[in-house]
Amino acid sequence: MPILKSAKKALRQSEIRRVRNLQRKRAVQDVLKKIRVLADQNKVNDAMALLPKAYQALDKAAKRNVISKNTAARKKSRLVKRLVKARSK
Question: How many domains does the chain contain in total?
Answer without folding.
Answer: 1
